[in-house]
Design brief:
The chain contains four helices and six strands. Helices cover 24% and strands 29% of the residues. A six-stranded mixed beta sheet has the order 1-2-3-4-5-6. The termini are far apart. The chain has a single domain (2-92), classed as Hypothetical protein Ta1206 fold, CATH 3.30.1980.
Amino acid sequence: MMIEQIKLKKGIAIGLNIQMQHASLLVVKADLGFVMCGYLDMATAEKLGDVAVRVSGVSTFEDVLTAEVKSVTPKAKELGIAVGMKAVDALELMF
């Protein structure tokens, strides 16, 4: 498992990388929410009322930051986060 501080313009996010059997499980958390890889469940994040976005096809923190947002929770939409934007831009809105 790797935990890394990721410096962004508006704050410092925390990256969590857990190497599973066949791929990495990645989460990058900002103050108000997080970006997750496809391993995690958007329906649960939505049910819990989290500010969350999902990206796919990522294996490093850099991949996560440059990936296109594939789905967002309603709470993320309230912050101006939208499908199609870069995950780094979504994270900036989470500070």
